[in-house]
Amino acid sequence: MTNLLEVHNLVKRFESGGGFLGAPKQVVRAVNDVSFSVARGQSVGLVGESGCGKSTVARTLLRLIEPDEGSILFDGQDIRAANASSLRALRRRIQIVFQDPYASLNPRRTVRQALTEPLVVHKLGTAGDISSKVEKAIDEVGLPRSALDRYPHEFSGGQRQRIGIARALVLDPEIIVADEPVSALDVSVQAQILQLLERLKRDRGISFVFVSHDLGVVRHFCDTVCVMYLGRIIEQGPTGQVLDNPLHPYSRVLRDSSPVPDPEARIRLSKISGEIPAPTNLPSGCTFHPRCARAKPDCAARIPPLEGMGASRAVACFYPLVEDVVSRPIASLSDSRGT
């Protein structure tokens, strides 16, 4: 299976302060040396606490946010090196679906206008061809064609998200970056949207970079998962293996914090103390060591590299949970939503 997208050593920093009022200059390391790949037809999940940098990674892939360092290769082409015309052509093949479907739609434009605009901008066909593509896309996401002449405020949240997906589909993308696409929706609607995305992955062979904090959703949809903490990937591998038997202490904490839809279940929570460090003042060495029960002196002295553990796993930890790992399956979408 060939890789469609390859990300190497991605870095993004944000600066604040240092203006005329004399505020001290601060640097937020939002993304710090992130590397991963996405194969054709595969879905890769980025998970972690709020503020870990997963949404920033998603936006840098399309250069909606310009990365500071690293490379992003799409089908062998360097996205960072692309000029304006090359980037426009690449964005036909890479699309994004945002978390808030209402904020991503122009309230003054009808659905037809919203779906037509990308095709007009890229000059893809005659007026008749464009109309046919728009109707095909709205059919594919399960909305009636009468929806095309209505405005975003006339739809529910789930319907608006379907419109956002249809807008991405009209350009026939090869990969979709989905940034928390179901977190703002009711749980019953979440299942419907995820089933739609699953069908698109199966029928069209679309690859996905899927950002989420819901491990049940990630288990249901993603083939592999990357766990992020304070801008770094600290563990990656097949979704089932990572969620059932995490190797990094933080991955264990994240897994144990996920609810289990069984009132009789007894969960042994991993020991954790302290607060998340400020992104402007990261600890030395492993950024998780101040909160880790397994930390030793060398954890504060050196940054652990992301190293392979077997054929398909990788973990950034000097003392991974190999011997004392506790298996606890995370509920899939069907288990936790009753669908």
Can you walk me through this structure?
With 339 residues, the protein is of the alpha/beta class. The protein has helices at residues 54-61, 84-93, 111-121, 127-140, 157-169, 187-204, 215-221, 239-244, 249-256, 297-301, 333-337; strands at residues 3-16, 26-39, 43-47, 69-74, 77-78, 94-97, 175-179, 207-211, 224-229, 232-238, 307-308, 314-315. The strands form two sheets. The protein has an eight-stranded mixed sheet, sandwiched between helices. Strands 2-1-4-5 form a four-stranded antiparallel sheet, covered by helices on one side. The two termini are 31 Å apart. 41% of the residues are buried. The mean pLDDT is 87.
The largest β sheet comes out as: 8 strands, mixed
| Poorly predicted runs of 5 or more residues | none
Strand portion:
15-25%
User: Per the principal axes of the C-alpha atoms, what is the gross shape?
Assistant: globular
Radius of gyration: 21 Å
* Topology, number of strands: 12
Average pLDDT taken over every residue? 87
Q: What is the number of helical segments per DSSP (H or I, 4+ residues)?
A: 11
Query: Which bin fits the share of residues in helices?
Result: 25-40%
Distance between the termini: 31 Å
Order of helices and strands: EEEHEEHEHHHEHEHEEHHHEEH
What is the SS-derived class?
A: alpha/beta
| Strand arrangement, major sheet | 6-7-8-3-9-10-12-11
List the keywords:
8-stranded mixed beta sheet; 4-stranded antiparallel beta sheet; 339 residues; alpha/beta; 21% strand
Give a brief rundown of this model.
With 339 residues, this protein is of the alpha/beta class. The chain is 31% helix and 21% strand.
